[in-house]
């Protein structure tokens, strides 16, 4: 009896020790990457605990194809260096005042873009991207629904976004766009009168900057006529996770990653946006460096 | 070595606030990258000197004689100044800074590591120095080829010039010193001229001719001097170095250096 009690006591103490130490050791032993980097997980969905090596789908043919593709890209990059910056002669770079970065002239142009909506968080908006008439423009159309998903966590919903894919060079390295010779964004589009937001993402370094975007408003005119929108880059303001930041600074144009268009005007119903091309130009008359005052908050008195 | 390490650390710490003065994420990124590389190099210097003191019993800077310690400290100093293959931080850091801070980084910040390099020059591995020099000259020429940003261009120019300085160190340290002095003068001229013109891209240089013809001419001459074109001053150290390399029976090395100088001259002339 006494021996059984002693064993029980030892076991209880031992179990408590294991419990206490596992609680303290857990952060050291298995780091929750999703919590650390703030990744979004749909409420109600179980965390994906599959180890990375179980997610590999090995295919020899795909591997060979990949090697061929990437070495081909590397060879092209090396050859381009002899021509000039970005594979074009230097004189072209020095003299250009406009550059059409994206234009929608064929099905392959749509592959450079990603469409997403609040369906990813459980909402009911829909958005689709297709080529317009005569393959001369793209049309982003769909329906917005601002009813929030009933998951107990999400309060707001009703958005859709069209974002360009990150350009990649050989071996899937990120390639950035250099717009430092230009100062204005020029877009030819035809909307339905809804207010959109243009988001430009630049290359960032710190993990807390991964959601940093430079935004500006895009008010479309509904109507049969095409609209030429010229927005100086000095007008773009900084936001992070959708919130405008107090510490503002101008967008540096030498490492631009992506551009996007977001609709989130809380108006349920159909929408459509046609884009002919997205270009950049150098407006010599525009000399403003940054449109917003950068005064000191809480100045010393 | 302890005092030298302390001096290098103080030097790094002193310039960090100057670099981060501009409240922009790119400046903060440049400052962080600079701090990490310089701290790593300083830690390697301390490690190498401690290892030498442990094995050889000597803390003197010019008495570092243990081969591993010598190699480690050479690589650490190469990381400090941005010699290839430890050069990857330099263009990105310079691009994130304004021209004044870039000038300080390219000129003043090289003095302290070079002082140490000159003191340990007698004990360094000649093959390592030759490798570092040739790689730096080639990387500096190749990397600067299609640069349109002037700060990155000057960073690659810095890497190439450092290669020239390092390669002759083992044969004639006086030439290294001469090359360093002339490089500092030319680079300071370039940076200050660009600061007056407030230009950071080659496009703005192209448009500068009608506005400031004298300054544009000066920039052109400085660039040609950096490229080593005779009869400008920048030709002299390159010529003397090639002559010395030829005297030391290193014609292949001299040829490679001359070819890399041609690469650099190509993008300066453009």
From TrEMBL, chain A:
GO terms for biological process: mitochondrial electron transport, NADH to ubiquinone; mitochondrial respiratory chain complex I assembly. Residues 102-275 form the NADH:ubiquinone oxidoreductase intermediate-associated protein domain. The keyword Cytoplasm does not apply. GO terms for molecular function: unfolded protein binding. It is found in: Mitochondrion. As part of the MCIA complex, involved in the assembly of the mitochondrial complex I. This is Complex I intermediate-associated protein 30, mitochondrial. The gene is NDUFAF1.
From TrEMBL, chain B:
One of its GO terms (cellular component) is mitochondrial inner membrane. Residues 1-263 form the NADH:quinone oxidoreductase/Mrp antiporter transmembrane domain. It holds the Pfam family Proton_antipo_M. Its EC number is 7.1.1.2. The chain crosses the membrane at residues 35-56, 68-90, 127-146, 153-171, 177-194, 215-232, 252-269. Keywords: Electron transport, Membrane, Mitochondrion, Mitochondrion inner membrane, NAD, Respiratory chain, Translocase, Transmembrane, Transmembrane helix, Transport, Ubiquinone. It catalyses: a ubiquinone + NADH + 5 H(+)(in) = a ubiquinol + NAD(+) + 4 H(+)(out). It is a multi-pass membrane protein. It is an enzyme of class 7 (translocase). It comes from the Eukaryota. One of its GO terms (biological process) is mitochondrial electron transport, NADH to ubiquinone. Coiled coil: none annotated. One of its GO terms (molecular function) is NADH dehydrogenase (ubiquinone) activity. InterPro entries: Complex_I_Subunit_2 (IPR050175), NADH_UbQ_OxRdtase_chain2 (IPR003917), ND/Mrp_TM (IPR001750). The keyword Ribosomal protein does not apply. It is found in: Mitochondrion inner membrane. Core subunit of the mitochondrial membrane respiratory chain NADH dehydrogenase (Complex I) which catalyzes electron transfer from NADH through the respiratory chain, using ubiquinone as an electron acceptor. Essential for the catalytic activity and assembly of complex I. Belongs to the complex I subunit 2 family. This is NADH-ubiquinone oxidoreductase chain 2. The gene is ND2.
